[in-house]
Amino acid sequence: MSAQAEAPEACTQDLLAGRAGNGRPDPGATVCSCFAIGINQIAAAIAEPGGASVDAVGKRLGAGTNCGSCRAEIQAIISANLAGEPEPLTRAG
Ligand code: FES
Question: Does the C-beta of 91 come closer than 6 Å to ligand 1?
């Protein structure tokens, strides 16, 4: 008898697929690795009233408030959003 707990089959498949499971929002590609914040979470924060600034995103999600290396990318997402462009789904580079 194994002492390890087994994950439910659906959970295992979600893990192997590398995406959120049913009923859980997909955070999208990671933008802020310090806080594991994805592009979809940032896009949602930007859409909130008063959310269209790097500092506002930081206050809501924490993104950009530690090492700061993601702040330029957050600003680019905000700029693309304000220009009416669809949010980039993947990071360049
Ligand atoms: S990667 Fe976002 S604060 Fe460090």
Answer: no
Single out the residue of 53, 45, 12 nearest to residue 28, CA to CA: 45
Q: How many CB atoms lie within 10 A of CB 30?
A: 15
User: Is 53 near ligand 1, meaning CB less than 6 Å away?
Assistant: no
The predicted pLDDT at position 93 comes to 44
Q: How many whole angstroms from 62 Cα to the centroid of ligand 1?
A: 9
The domains of the chain, with CATH numbers, are 26-93 (1.10.10.1100)
Summarised one tens digit per residue, pLDDT across range 34-91 is: 999 999 999 999 999 999 999 999 999 999 999 999 999 999 999 998 887 765 544 4
Ligand 1 contact via 36 beta carbon (within 6 Å): no
